[in-house]
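Issue: ligand-bound run for iron/sulfur cluster - logging full I/O for the record.

Environment: standard queue, default settings, no custom constraints.

Inputs:
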Amino acid sequence: MTLRNLVLVCGDQLDHHSIALDGFDPERDAILMTEAAHEATYVWQSKRRIAFFFAAMRHFRDAMRRQGRTVLYNAIDDADPPNSLGAGLKAAVAAHDPERVVMVEPGDWRVRHALLTAAGETGVPLDMLEDRHFYASIADFEEFSDGRKRFVMEDFYRMMRKRTGLLMDGDGKPVGGAWNFDKDNRKAFGKDGPGLIAPRAHYQPGPITVDVLRLVEKRFKDAPGTLESFGEPVTREDALHALEDFVANRLCEFGTFQDAMWEGSSTLNHSRISAVINLKLIGPREAVDAAVAAYESGAAPLNAVEGFVRQIIGWREWIRGLYWTRMPDYADLNALDAQADMPAFFWTGETDMACLRDMITRLLRTGYAHHIERLMGMGLYLLMHGARPYATHDWHMGLYLDAIDWVSLPNMLGMSQHADGGVVGTKPYCATGAYIDRMSNYCAGCRFNPKQATGEDACPFTTLYWDFLARHEDRFAANRRMVLQVRNLQRKDADEVAAIRARAETLRVG
Ligand SMILES: Cc1cc2nc3c(=O)[nH]c(=O)nc-3n(C[C@H](O)[C@H](O)[C@H](O)COP(=O)(O)OP(=O)(O)OC[C@H]3O[C@@H](n4cnc5c(N)ncnc54)[C@H](O)[C@@H]3O)c2cc1C
Ligand code: SF4
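Outputs:
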């Protein structure tokens, strides 16, 4: 078949309303999708993540076919499938001789480069279209950034609120008289815990997903994690249902307990839509509009809805803008010169630390952790351990269902590891075990003591915190927002600091 347009769709581009499908002519166009072994193995990935992507891709393929569209689909279990996205593209061009290849811009600088190179080798033009899934284009982000002295997410967020009119009153002021309600959104659950929160829906795997689960179990048997109780939404219908379920059952308390942690559960009041929104099964406008409608009907309070809207039109868009305006150099940043290997227990959860044991084993089981578990649990430990920033991003890409390069890299390397020296956040997020003690119930059941920095019972977070400050004392003393923390370090006597640093070294060796 000779084609007009070959529409290339990657695994994180399962957008039913994609701009690349505009004007699709079933007589002359075809979609190309490839389950590439390279994409499943270029970082060591969990079985769950691989299965999630392939299952969602196969359902998207079938949905497109039901709409009368031809889909050229390279399944990983075909005889002799292409190993990479570029190889899949070249084979399809050779077989179908399209006039042009068209796709939405990819979510990964590496993939963009590989596809442009592959297309270049075929001689067929490849048009990468601006992704209308997002609220802001990269040009919008550049316009916002240009010549700006103060470059912080909050200003970007306010600009986005004004631009979209979301949660604004008629006079250009924020609804409720404040731009954000963060001060109301940092509560812990208290000793009785979160109480009854409606559990997240389980999406029973149908025949397509069951086939994928079998395939992944066999082919990727040495990959980390488990496929047990796989119940992820992998279709647009289920993804929309997951959003509705959140808005109806958990949004109300999303704000208040946004930062709280509790042993045995990550979902708590969070939406858990990041994976389906990043695969584009649903759009950010659908999520934001549903939350705003809940506020307007009186079904959800402003602190919850504003908090949720900020995550999506603020943080998510800001992170994407940073990625595309700073890559590829951003990936090499290592402002704190962190050179340690990843601790091995990050792949197994086998540690005496009650908090990390619970978070990592759950992550291996579900492919999910909420924001504070990522930032003030696992990410915090890696920062203070001094792991190489790009290695922490690789680990994150391997285990989380929602990790796509554009969003994982600035969050992990920038926000969590401070490797960009203060672009995503103006100071490193560092704390002792006392923070985890305050925001969760972990420490009561742990063999370590969050108040101790030395000795057999010392909490590793607390030891590593003081060691981290001591290692970077000069740098942090020059940061206005870190001065108090550095002063507290300077109050300690030299013997205590030496003992802390010696213990930190033993922790680092493992
Ligand atoms: C170290 C670290 C790594 C992260 N890596 C990723 C990642 O690879 N992919 C990812 O989607 N998010 C990432 N985040 C952001 C955030 O933690 C997740 O989006 C969120 O936990 C997903 O769970 P949820 O859907 O229940 O989110 P909710 O808490 O319910 O928030 C709603 C939505 O807001 C968006 N959002 C919130 N914060 C961010 C943010 N900082 N960046 C981008 N979107 C945001 C997400 O789409 C999320 O679904 C990371 C955060 C940290 C601290
Ligand atoms: S004492 Fe330290 S290691 Fe143990 S749960 Fe608390 S913060 Fe985690």
